[in-house]
Amino acid sequence: MLQLKRQGRVSCCLFMLGLLACGGSASQPQTANAQASAPKPGTPAQNLVNAYVVLQGKLAKSDAAGAKGAFAAVQSAVKASGLSIDPALQKRIEGAAAHGASATNLANARTAFAALSDGFLALFKSAENPLTEPLTVAFCPMALDSKGAKWLQLGERIQNPYFGTDMLTCGSVEGSVKPGKKL
Question: What is the number of domains present in the chain?
Answer without folding.
Answer: 1
